[in-house]
Specification:
about 180 residues; mainly beta; Jelly Rolls; six-stranded antiparallel sheet; five-stranded antiparallel sheet; 1 helix; about 5% helix; globular
C-alpha cells in the first residue's frame, strides 16, 4: 500500500496494490502492520459500517466528540464519491481547512482521517456503496456536525446545490464560525 500525506496532518490517501487479471482483481484493503509502519499510527478498528446512497446524496459534515472521537478509514466499493475531511482541531495550523479526494470502486483509493476531523461525502455516480472502519464505537450522545455548505469552508462538492439530497438532520448544522470545537 502507498500512503500519501495530505496538507492536513493526520489525513492520508491510501492506494492499495491491486492485482488484476482476466478473472478480476484482488487487493488487501487494510493491513494494520503495514499501515503502522508507513503512517506511524497504531490503529485498532472496532466497528465497520456500510451505506448505499444515490446520486446527489450528501452526508456530513459529521464527527464524534471526545471521549468518543473516531479515526476513520473510508472507501467506496461501488460507484464514485467526493470524500472530505475538515480540520476541527482548534490549535492546529490547518484549523478550518479541508482536503477532498475522489474515491471509487475503480480507483480503490481509501481515505484515512485521525480524530479531530469532520467528515462528509457526496455521491457523484448513480449509486455508491461506501464502507468505513472506525476506531471507536458509535456514541449518539457525542455526535457533532458542521454545515456542509458553509461559505467560509468553501467546499466544492461536485454536485449542483439544487440536486443535493440531505437528511433532515444535515439541513440544520451550525456554521463553522458559530461552532465550538471539542478538539483543543
Amino acid at each position: 500500500m502507498e500512503i500519501i500525506k495530505t496538507e492536513l496532518e493526520g489525513v492520508y490517501i491510501i492506494e492499495p496494490r491491486v492485482f488484476g487479471d482476466a478473472r478480476g482483481y484482488f487487493f488487501e484493503s487494510f493491513n494494520a502492520r503495514e499501515f503502522a509502519e508507513k503512517s506511524g499510527l497504531d490503529i485498532t478498528f472496532v466497528q465497520d459500517n456500510e451505506s448505499m446512497s444515490h446520486y446527489g446524496v450528501l452526508r456530513g459534515l459529521h464527527f464524534q466528540c471526545p471521549p468518543f472521537a473516531q479515526s476513520k478509514l473510508v472507501r467506496v466499493v461501488k460507484g464514485r464519491v467526493l470524500d472530505v475531511a475538515v480540520d476541527i482541531r482548534k490549535n492546529s495550523p490547518t484549523y478550518g481547512r479541508h482536503v477532498s479526494v475522489e474515491l471509487s470502486g475503480e480507483n480503490h483509493r481509501q481515505f484515512f482521517m485521525a480524530k479531530g476531523f469532520a467528515h462528509g461525502f457526496s455521491v457523484l455516480s448513480p449509486e455508491a456503496i461506501f464502507q468505513y472502519k472506525c476506531d471507536e464505537f458509535y456514541a449518539p450522545q457525542s455526535e457533532g456536525a458542521i454545515a456542509w455548505n458553509d461559505p467560509d469552508l468553501g467546499i466544492q462538492w461536485g454536485i449542483p446545490e439544487d440536486q443535493t439530497i440531505l437528511s433532515e438532520k444535515d439541513k440544520h448544522h451550525p456554521l463553522f464560525k458559530d461552532f465550538q470545537t471539542p478538539f483543543i
